[in-house]
Specification:
Shape: elongated
Number of helices: 14
Distance between the termini: 42 Å
Radius of gyration: 47 Å
Structural class: alpha+beta
Number of strands: 35
Helix content: 25-40%
Number of domains: 5
């Protein structure tokens, strides 16, 4: 049926197939140019991939010669990470210190008694103060959950509330400060004062401390002195120049609101003959020092010490607080100090006297710890807004606001936060828990970071070397040697095999890389450490017991790493290794030698703006644009050729049709003539 001719439907001579056959031959040059464009585009992609690998190697190398040098990274190691940890910046200095954590910084946290599920919080204006910051909430009344949600929206980073189902059928309200430190007490006022009272979070004290007022009796049994440096006469304690004394308090005095320490004190200036002779110790480690006269005729004068901060309060935690300096007066002067301002909430175990003066005796009498008569009533009715801690009910204070207290090499330090970044330059300490024993904190170089940077550099080096081997050689074994490639990546590599065979630019780059890796570099710290194989990096780093047979893959230029050798070198020769990768040979503060410096210098012409890779891809783009223009011209010529052929075959078809019609007409005329005879 396919050969049946149907006028107007099918060409008698199958002109379409004839034209298509002729055009297929005509399109061969055009298709050849199109395949050339595809090859050029693939080459451009390969150059771009190569450029990215060169850039990766260069970036790895530059990290060794920049201010982000991994050899300058520091880390903090802790002898007990459950107690104290830390972080260090690059500015930190290598050092070792001992820390003892006395207490961690905490914030006030109050928990109510179990409350019924239907407990309602009254409407009102609730005010909470955390240190110097105030949080105000106008609450219209509602459930514990509604109150907690409203307070959390207002409190943000200062205060937080939670509803905890302590028991079935009841809940407790937890209100806590989010700011640690003794100065950041959580204080309730306004309607907020009634809520914790009614919910059982706090209660007002109803009586003053039982041991107040207390008159401190001065007797031989209660007074501890340093040798014969102090004496008691009646109700007066006299501490001689250079002397010490202590009055223990039994029971100890717990600091409460409005509590004051009062006493009378006088000083007596010693006459010249009563001043201790030179070289006589006046206080423990302090000795009177003398200087001889220039002529040697006059006796040396004693070194004079003036220190009127004589009295200190000692606490149960072993710390102490000095009272303000006394005034020089031969007559007794009255002194009065507010204990909460001096001690916070600490408990006083003794009153200590340390008279370091070399020419002054100090006398003290009428020592009293009490609440003044005009304030006794205030103690029983102290407002919650004035001192929340004094009104805490038993068991309702989950934690009290306090500073972190640590000892650094025996020096006591306190901070309001458990994160301390102003103690050791460049080091941030994080206090986690109290400790009885010292915890050793060391600031050391981050050798692991340096090792990772070296491994990254070697990895980028090998990836670039593998890429160049594939592009310049048509050898299937090159792909088989890269065991880390996936099947898809292996197939992609096969398409690249030898595509840049004979490309001198890549041959030069490969040769340059091998020369840098095998080179020797100047270092000042260790003259014998000058090459990469000395730290376990090379093209043939064989481990003990490994085969020594021929391995062609070792001839491809890839670097290997002996990790144990590298770890040992980093542990003992870190500064020299830093110089091996980048070193300033002339002291101008600019690195001008080393493995990383040479790699950076070698890679720069290839990937810089207008560099070799850019020139290569630019040339390919020009050829692609030129071939695209050729294709456009060929497409126009092919379209014209096809139209011409179709027209010629159409004319032939028309001529043949006319000849057939004439033949038919002649046959019909002849037939009619025969019929008319």
């Amino acid at each position: 049926m396919s050969d049946v001719y149907m006028p107007g439907v099918k060409s008698r001579f199958n002109s379409e197939n004839l034209v298509e056959g002729l055009m297929r031959i005509e399109r061969i040059p055009r298709e050849r140019v199109g395949k050339g464009i595809e090859t050029l585009q693939a080459q451009k992609t390969y150059w771009q991939e190569l450029g990215r690998k060169v850039s990766a190697l260069r970036e790895s190398a530059r990290s060794f010669v920049s201010f982000q040098n991994p050899f300058n990274d520091r880390i903090v190691t802790s002898g007990d990470e459950s107690v104290l940890i830390g972080t260090a910046t690059r500015e930190a200095v290598n050092q070792t210190r001992d820390f003892t954590v006395k207490q961690t910084a905490q914030a006030d946290r109050f928990l109510s008694q179990p409350l019924e599920d239907n407990y309602r919080v009254e409407a009102g204006s609730y005010t909470f103060t955390v240190g110097k910051d105030e949080v105000s909430l106008n609450f219209r009344g509602g459930s514990l959950r509604e109150f907690a949600d409203a307070l959390n929206r207002r409190g943000r980073d200062k205060i937080q509330a939670s509803v905890i189902p302590i028991q079935r059928g009841s809940k407790s309200l937890l209100i806590e400060s989010k700011v640690t430190g003794a100065e950041n007490r959580l204080v309730f006022s306004g309607a907020a004062e009634n809520l914790p009272l009614s919910a059982g979070m706090i209660e007002r004290p109803v009586e003053q401390p039982k041991d107040l007022p207390r008159n401190i009796a001065l007797t031989g049994e209660t007074l501890i002195t340093d040798g014969q440096s102090a004496e008691v006469s009646g109700d007066t304690l006299k501490v001689y120049a250079g002397g010490q004394a202590a009055i223990p308090l039994d029971p100890a005095v717990r600091t409460a609101p409005n509590l004051v320490l009062a006493f009378e004190a006088a000083t007596e200036i010693l006459s010249e003959q009563d001043i201790p002779e030179p070289d006589v110790a006046v206080d423990g480690d302090l000795a009177a020092e003398t200087e001889g006269s220039e002529t040697g005729d006059s006796p040396p004068l004693p070194f004079q010490v003036d220190d009127l901060e004589v009295i200190a309060l000692k606490f149960t935690d072993g710390s102490a607080a000095k009272l303000p300096a006394l005034e020089d007066s031969e007559t007794f002067q009255a002194y009065r100090f507010s204990l909460p301002e001096l001690t916070g909430e600490k408990t006083i175990v003794s009153i200590d006297f340390n008279n370091q003066n070399t020419h002054r005796d100090v006398s003290v009498r009428n020592i009293v710890i009490s609440v003044p008569d005009d304030e006794e009533n205030a103690v029983a009715a102290v407002a919650v807004a004035q001192d929340t801690a004094a009104a805490v009910a038993q068991g309702s204070l989950i934690s009290a606001a306090q500073d972190a207290v640590i000892f650094m090499d025996g020096i006591e330090i306190s901070r309001p936060s458990n994160t301390i970044d102003d103690l050791v330059p460049g080091v941030t300490l994080i206090v986690k828990a109290p400790s009885e024993r010292p915890v050793k904190i060391e600031v050391v170089p981050d050798r692991e970071s340096a090792k990772e940077a070296i491994i990254s550099l070697v990895g980028n080096y090998n990836r670039l070397m593998a890429e160049m081997n594939i592009l310049t050689r048509n050898d299937e074994r090159l792909i088989q040697e890269l065991s880390y490639l996936s099947p898809e990546e292996q197939e992609e590599m096969r398409n690249k095999l030898g595509i840049f065979s004979g490309e001198s630019t890549l041959v030069q780059l490969k040769t340059g890389l091998q020369r840098v890796a095998a080179g020797s570099y100047l270092t000042s710290l260790e003259r014998d450490l000058t090459m990469l194989p000395q730290i376990g990096i090379g093209t043939d780093v064989r481990k003990a017991g490994a085969t020594t047979g021929y391995d062609p893959s070792r001839l491809r230029g890839y670097l290997e790493i002996d990790e144990k050798a590298l770890d040992a070198a980093l542990e003992t020769h870190l500064p020299a290794i830093q110089q091996l990768f980048g070193y300033d040979t002339d002291g101008d503060l600019i690195i001008d030698s080393g493995v990383a410096y040479m790699l950076d210098r070698l890679a720069k012409p290839y990937v810089e703006t207008g560099g070799i890779v850019t020139l290569k891809t630019g040339a390919i783009d020009s050829r692609i644009a030129q071939d695209n223009r050729r294709i456009e011209t060929m497409d126009r010529q092919l379209a014209a050729k096809e139209a011409s052929l179709k027209n010629q075959y159409a004319q032939m078809e028309g001529a043949y049709s006319r000849m057939e019609q004439m033949s038919t007409s002649l046959d019909q005329f002849s037939q009619r003539a025969d019929n008319n005879r």
